[in-house]
Write a structure and sequence with these properties.
Length: 252
């Protein structure tokens, strides 16, 4: 009897600890807010696809103006809102990432509009190269913070950093030269990046809708007991809790 009583007390303690962990981490049994990650990932993916389509030469004419239109709202505002909602879920990484790229698209859209309207002069080649290089560096820093997420998210940020650097290297190219070739390659690479973002957003959305993993994202191991296996859901993993759970399984 004492053994059963002890196992029951351990189970109750484990349940109470789990609930407290979820509350402390800003996650309840039924989260107070929806997962904003799909919105941010789709906004980024679609707008970037329009932007890189012109670089890749897959469509006739220049789709940059269309991309800038989406950059104001879907790529910009929607991503920024997703970042604010990540803040409510106490997800610092999601907040900073979505707000950063949302602000990037809105800034790029307003700059392009002002240049087209003759308010600003177009930046020189080296200025554009500096801008894209710096964004590549910032994205690389984000990538360094993805080792507790999943392989899809990790690859998304690494490939995006490379995309910025490819675009920087292709600025100022003319038809037939090495820079123009690099720009076309960057356009094709950009479609791969956006496909990854579409996949990540779809995986997160389907998991929330159907309540289980439909598309695998291959979660990585927690780092310092913190896991962001799902982009919009941060969890603190208690190793002692896992050990106790395994013991209870063996005991049953």
């Amino acid at each position: 009897m004492s053994g059963k009583s002890s196992a029951s007390e351990d189970s109750i303690a484990l349940l109470a600890h789990r609930l407290q962990t979820l509350i402390d981490d800003g996650i309840k049994i039924n989260p107070a807010t929806a997962n904003p990650a799909p919105l941010g990932l789709f906004g980024f993916a679609l707008t970037t696809s329009l932007f890189t389509g012109a670089s890749a030469g897959l469509v006739e004419g220049d789709t940059t103006q269309m991309a800038m239109g989406f950059g104001f709202f879907f790529g910009g505002l929607a991503q920024f809102v997703a970042g604010i909602l990540e803040y409510q879920r106490r997800n610092t990484f999601g907040t900073v990432a979505f707000c950063t790229y949302g602000a990037f698209w809105m800034s790029l859209a307003i700059y392009t509009t002002l240049v087209a309207g003759g308010v600003y002069e177009e930046a020189p080649t080296k200025g554009s190269q500096l801008l894209l290089t710096l964004w590549g560096i910032l994205t690389f820093i984000f990538w360094l913070c993805t080792f507790h997420t999943n392989l899809v998210t990790c690859w998304l940020f690494f490939s995006l950093a490379l995309l910025f650097w490819f675009l920087a290297g292709g600025v100022g190219g003319e038809n037939g030269d090495a820079r123009s070739t690099l720009t076309k390659f960057a356009g094709g690479w950009g479609f791969m990046v956006t496909a990854t973002s579409f996949y990540a957003g779809t995986a997160a959305l389907m998991k929330d809708v159907y309540g289980k993993d439909i598309l695998p994202v291959f979660p990585l191991k927690p780092v310092n007991n913190v896991s962001l296996g799902d982009f919009g859901t941060k969890r603190i993993i208690d190793l002692e809790e896992q050990s106790l759970e395994e013991q209870n399984r063996k005991g049953s």
